[in-house]
Amino acid sequence: MGYGKQVYSKALTELESRRRDAMQKADAQVSYFFTLCPRAEEIRQKQASNGAKVAKAVLSGQSAKAALEKLKNENLALQAEFDKLAREHGFTNHQLNPQYSCTKCDDKGFIDGKMCSCLKNLQKAIAYERLNVNLPLENCSFSAFSLQYYQGESRQHMQRIFDYCTRYAAQFHENAPSLFFKGRTGLGKTHLALAIANEVIAKGYGVIYSAVQNFAVSLEKERFERGNDWETSDTNSQLLSCDLLIIDDLGTEFSSSYVNAALYNLINTRLIARKPTIISTNLSMKDLEDRYSERFASRIAGQYGRFEFVGNDIRLQKKEQRK
Ligand SMILES: [Zn+2]
Questions:
Q1: Ligand 1 center to residue 17 CA distance, Å?
Q2: Domain extents for the chain?
Q3: Ligand 1 centroid to 103 CA: how many Å?
Q4: Its pTM surpasses 0.85
Q5: What is the pLDDT of residues 201-214, one digit of tens each?
Q6: Which of 171-185, 247-261, 292-306 has the lowest mean pLDDT?
Q7: CATH fold of 132-322, please?
Q8: 121 C-alpha vs ligand 1 centroid, how far in Å?
């Protein structure tokens, strides 16, 4: 899947800057080492001139074998001396050589003309970052979720949901089950969905979270701007291919047959591919049937793990406390 030119060039720029940083750091350490130990600098110069001699010997073609052997041994001895001096001055190999973030391609992004996995992953991460701008992740962790706002039986019930969600996040995998969070506003649905997102992102999976109206808006926008069908739109292909998709507040979007069809396709295709989706909504199954379609509701009823959030609006309780 392509991510577009902008994502590609942003990823390349990021790699170049990583590579430059690694080289600059190593260069600075090497220069510092040379000020402490002039002999080390001499060795480096000697190695460089030996390198030039090797090239000459090869080019001249004449009985170069013995000469090459001699130079090779000399270089090994020089390197051993260099390493010994470095150790004596307290420098490690690690400090004196560039430490690239990718050891496969040395942060060049390509190996023998083929794109390295690091460049692919970086593009993926940048694409997700763009889709997840404004993701309110900071305040939504499991540890920030408080059960004190639920009373009596509600608390026990919510404790079970909370426990399930923490296990779900800890054991997340590509074919984890899809979840349906139902309940009124202010009962923690978004908080727990984002807490799962937090952990799953930290494991290196591609997660897309958005309130449903944002999906609807970008789908409609692409449709009008580029005449795209939702089947070929960039937004749709990323929604289909991400490892975990979280659709928040289903039912609050501006309803259109175009968006309804795209949503059904999205949910159905991900189910067939066994890719997990988390949906939060305050609609009942009956509401889903009325608003979308019977088959839409039945896909969710049959294939999603369903959780009913109960209790009293937490946002209101917090407001009360502040009074
Ligand atoms: Zn690489």
A1: 13
A2: 18-114, 132-322
A3: 7
A4: no
A5: 878 788 888 888 88
A6: 247-261
A7: Rossmann fold (3.40.50)
A8: 9
Count of C-beta atoms within a 10 Å radius of residue 122: 23
Q: What is the pLDDT of residues 151-190, one digit of tens each?
A: 888 999 999 999 999 999 999 999 999 999 999 988 999 9
Cα(123) to centroid(ligand 1), Å: 12
Output the pLDDT for position 272.
95
pLDDT digits (tens, 9 = 90+) for 62-74: 566 777 888 889 9
The type of residue at 145 is F
Q: How confident is the model at residue 311 (pLDDT cuts 50, 70, 90)?
A: confident
